[in-house]
Amino acid sequence: MTSKRFKKLPEKTFDLPAESVDKLIPIIKKNCTAKFDESIDLSFQINHKQKKNEINIRTIVNLPGGSGKNVKVAVVCEDAKSNEAKTAGADTVGGDDLIEKIKSGDINFEKLICTPSMMIKLSKLGKVLGPKGLMPNPKLGSVTEDLKTAVHDAKSGQAEIRNDKDGNIGVSIGKKSFTDDKLVKNFNAILDTLDKEKSNNVVKGDLIKSSFITSTMGVSYKLKLGKNI
């Protein structure tokens, strides 16, 4: 059943021409009528001319304006590096003891970071961590000796960009409460990352077929990217 709040939102926005992000953000914010700080989200569809199953995008982007999320970070490391992780702001730090908790299903975090030597032990928990998207990955900066930087980046505002099997990519650029400038900066950082991934995947033509912007409880608008990706 459609709520009274949703019925008051604009209709047939899919029929409108694509607009630039700076023009759409104020409109999206106006549609944020829920009683919480809604996320401003992007949705991309990989170009149908590309073979979707051959394009594998999975990377991270440090959002210059932050993410607006309080991310719980866990670190699996040797005892000698535990203080470094704690000082950096990790919510949970441990070694073999933490691995055992994870193995039993006790997962009270949203981001997992580990040192290279501990990754050998964590790799055995693929069935536990894999489906939740929590397995540390060197490419994503979550397998590292530099725990200070990894924890700081995860806490300060980091977004993961990955496509699903149908060629869809979904990512947030922040919250309604963010200034327009912060949201635009985050948007541009994501476009720059997609542009790099286009080169890494040796894509012919445009990588992105269509793009939309919406809020958590709002309606979608066609988005003009402003550059060939």
How is the biggest beta sheet arranged? 5 strands, mixed
Looking at CATH, which topology of the largest domain would you report?
A: Ribulose 1,5 Bisphosphate Carboxylase/Oxygenase
The helix/strand class is alpha/beta
The coarse silhouette is globular
Name the CATH homologous superfamily of the largest domain: Ribosomal protein L1/L10, rRNA-binding domain
Query: What is the rounded distance between the termini?
Result: 38 Å
Question: Percent of residues in helical segments?
Answer: 25-40%
CATH class of the largest domain: Alpha Beta
- SSE string, helices as H and strands as E: HEHEEEHEHEHHHEEHEE
Strand order of the largest sheet: 1-10-9-2-8
Radius of gyration: 19 Å
Give the second-level CATH assignment, the architecture of the largest domain: 2-Layer Sandwich
Question: What do you see in this structure?
Answer:
With 229 residues, the protein is α/β, with parallel strands linked by helices. The protein folds into two domains: 14-67 and 159-224, 2-Layer Sandwich (Ribulose 1,5 Bisphosphate Carboxylase/Oxygenase); 73-156, 3-Layer(aba) Sandwich (Rossmann fold). Helix content is 31%, strand content 22%. The protein has helices at residues 4-7, 21-30, 82-88, 96-103, 116-122, 126-129, 147-156, 180-200; strands spanning 19-20, 39-46, 58-62, 73-76, 92-94, 111-114, 158-162, 168-175, 208-215, 221-224. A hairpin with a 5-residue loop joins strand 9 (208-215) and strand 10. Helix 2 (21-30) crosses helix 8 (180-200) and helix 3 (82-88) runs parallel beside helix 7 (147-156). The protein is globular, with a radius of gyration of 19 Å. 29% of the residues are buried.
